[in-house]
Design brief:
Number of domains: 2
Number of helices: 13
Distance between the termini: 66 Å
CATH class of the largest domain: Alpha Beta
Largest sheet: 10 strands, mixed
Shape: globular
Radius of gyration: 23 Å
CATH topology of the largest domain: Creatine Kinase, Chain A, domain 2
CATH superfamily of the largest domain: Glutamine synthetase/guanido kinase, catalytic domain
Helix content: 25-40%
């Protein structure tokens, strides 16, 4: 879609506003709106000014003038505004040099796709994320100098079997039994369908919708795979739709990796594959029907996994989920059909076009543009260096003894560890100028100061349970 067709789309729907969406470095959509009459063809070249100093991870105040550059190919009518509004996803330019902004995550993703083509290895990287979420009926939390607590609730939660719900009709979901009970236990069937319909109206193809393992309203809706930048755009729409459909139904949705103790958290398994000239490159006659290219790609992912985690599992809360012996795979191994390995090779279809790998440790708190780019660059590093992924581990890894696991590497145990790993191992991200040292330094500084250090300074409620009476 070009500029004129984007404008025409708005006119067809009597748009009165244009919403300019962009993503900050941390991974949250931001927006500003202008009257529709300001959207003329020249605006796609001239951009719209905004204050970059107020956006997390962007410019300091003395260099704060920046431009939002709308991408006409992303034009869509926003489904959640009262008044007809045309939505456009933007990239960012410097006002003086008119150069693309190196800390703009969408630009990083676009450079990753360009670098892939420049290598000659492939021309397309497909991604298919499975972003899990919770839909709660109530959430309350506080973190002050004199108190800290959180409280979540869901009408279908296991802890509400004895609640006075006027009346309580039972049919709660026991812990770890949310995959796949029918109604009335699955109380969000219609709400998830509403989400699917909104996605389809925006042209996002839905493959499956279901309740997930955890009690208290955990769900999953999977989109058909797409190329890197397009998939990241769709994932941002997906999160926006889930949150807003929940909100208009009087509920609240979160993609937080571990919002409650005692049950599964939210993961984001990422299916990925390389293609060239319409042909799949991961299909072959090797292990699990994989090609050497796929095995080397796995080798790159496993080699750089600790650094990857700083981008794909970027919150302190991410590591409440990545705990040995619980639901998320922390052992860095690959295997066919095996969901206890960090990398699973799907066997649902024998078709070469379906041959792909599924990286299982990422979670949906990540910024998809830089997360997908990071995984791609790690895999390409493996292909370029012909890295050996080692032998597959075709066992239930959760059931292995410590002796059997002694030679199997593990994921980092904390955000601090993964950030240290990224600081030591990021040269693979600098290839093709996809990431810049400036971006990586800003990421490390922000995460260490605003999250790791902030958490270190604060007592938690459970520490009172453990230590108040000592």
């Amino acid at each position: 879609m070009d500029a004129n067709r984007a404008i025409e789309l708005g006119k067809q729907h009597a748009a009165v506003m244009v919403d300019l969406k962009f993503i900050d470095l941390v991974g949250k959509w931001q927006h500003t709106s202008v009257p529709f009459h300001r959207l003329v063809p020249e605006a796609f070249e001239e951009g719209f000014g905004f204050d970059g100093s107020s956006i997390r991870g962007f410019q300091p105040i003395n260099q704060s003038d920046m431009l939002l550059m709308p991408d006409p190919a992303t034009a869509a009518m926003d489904p959640f505004t009262k008044h007809p509004t045309l939505s456009l996803i933007c990239t960012i330019q410097d006002t003086i040099t008119r150069q693309r902004y190196t800390r703009d995550p969408r630009y990083v993703a676009q450079k990753a796709e360009a670098y892939l083509r420049s290598t000659g290895i492939a021309d397309t990287a497909f991604f298919g994320p499975e972003a899990e979420f919770f839909i709660f009926d109530d959430v309350r939390y506080a973190a002050g100098s004199n108190e800290a607590f959180y409280s979540i609730d869901s009408g279908e939660a296991a802890w509400n079997t004895g609640a006075d719900q006027g009346p309580n009709l039972g049919h709660k979901i026991r812990h770890k039994e949310g995959y796949f009970p029918v109604q009335p236990q699955d109380s969000h069937m219609d709400l998830r369908t509403e989400i699917c319909l909104e996605m389809q109206r925006l042209g996002i193809e839905v493959e499956v919708s279901h309740h997930e393992v955890a009690t208290a309203g955990q769900g999953e809706i999977d989109m058909r795979f797409d190329s890197l930048v397009s998939m990241a755009d769709k994932l941002m729409w997906f999160k926006h739709i889930v949150k807003n459909v929940a909100h208009r139904n009087g509920k609240t949705a979160t993609f937080m990796p571990k919002p409650m103790f005692g049950d599964n958290g939210n993961g984001m398994h990422c299916h990925q594959s390389l293609w060239k000239e319409g042909k799949p490159l991961f299909a072959g006659d090797g292990y699990a029907g994989l090609s050497d290219t796929a095995l080397h790609y796995i080798g790159g992912i496993l080699k750089h996994a600790h650094a990857i985690a700083a981008i794909t599992n970027p919150t302190t809360n991410s590591y409440r989920r990545l705990v040995p012996g619980y639901e998320a795979p922390v052992n860095l191994a690959y295997s066919s059909r095996n969901r206890s390995a960090a990398i699973r090779i799907s066997t649902y279809s024998p078709s070469p076009k379906a041959r792909r790998l599924e990286l299982r440790f990422p979670d949906p708190s990540c910024n998809p543009y830089i997360a997908f780019a990071t995984m791609l660059l790690a895999g390409l590093d493996g292909v370029q260096k012909k890295l050996d992924p080692g032998d597959p581990l075709d066992k239930d890894i959760y059931a292995l003894s410590p002796e059997e696991l002694q030679d199997v590497a593990r994921m980092p145990a904390s955000l601090e560890e993964s950030l240290d790993a990224l600081e030591a191992d990021h040269e693979f991200l600098l290839k093709g100028d996809v990431f810049t040292r400036d971006l990586i330094e800003m990421w490390l500084d922000y995460k260490r100061e605003q999250e790791v250090q902030a958490m270190r300074l604060r007592p938690t409620p459970y520490e009172f349970f453990l230590y108040y009476d000592i």
